[in-house]
Please model this.
Amino acid sequence: ISPASISSRVDESQSLTLDRIRHSLFVKKIALYLAFLREPNTVTTPIPMTRDVFTKDGSLVEFMVRETEKLHAQVGRYKSPDEHPFFPEDLSEPMLPPIQYPKVLHPVADSININKTIWEMYFSKLLPRLVKEGDDGNCGSSAVCDTICLQALSKRIHYGKFVAEAKYQEAPDVYQPAIRAQDGNQLMRLLTYESVEDAIKRTVEANAKAYGQEVMIGDESQKDEASTAYKIKPKLVARSLWESGIMPADKGSAGALLANKIGLDTDPIEKNTSEAIGALQRDLKIFEA
Model:
């Protein structure tokens, strides 16, 4: 079937329905593990982030992310409600007819994009904690890894909008007073379930241990915790990346959506989002290589 013969398309996957949020979050969590496990195999190199070395339009990483987004945009990736480009002004027009997605989120959701903050956090604070200092000459591979990690982070953090919608629909009367009062702090409190977050952090650390260690088939010896070598420190994933980064930023994007459900200003929520990213940047300092 040629693209020209397709008059209309409808998303029947149900992947963006509120009932599928739990499964979708699990899939995105695994995608993040696999993305970040690539990075410890590389070393930092100045070339990918140096402007004008590879292209006059920016650094090698910017080139990789921009061109990847332009290519994926041609098949409609960034028309999906759960996709957010880092360079929206450079996207190509889709070759395929628009697809009809279920109307799950408030219309303002399309305007909520915190990728600039995610980009800064990733390169200035998170990446230096994951890779060795030096230059192994593989700047192309590093740029590819960065692109994969950035897109995985963006997708997971922005999925907070779907989580917020699910929570709001479950108890709208609980959230409406804070929304009308433009009380960003109260919205953050309402979006926080400490017992659930503690359980998530324990699960994340356990998953990071499982995915981050080398398993030898036939090796029956039992290794203790101290002798196990990990590609990436489980506590770095659970406490810094997740607790101080993804969770607060996730709630930041969620709060921005809720604040606009009745057309209110989002500045208080956006400020909380920036502060959450700043908390991640500070917290990363306590984990030594």
Summary: The CA atoms of residues 217 and 223 lie 14 Å apart. DSSP finds ten helices and two strands in the chain. The two ends are 53 Å apart (CA to CA). The chain has one domain: 3-286.
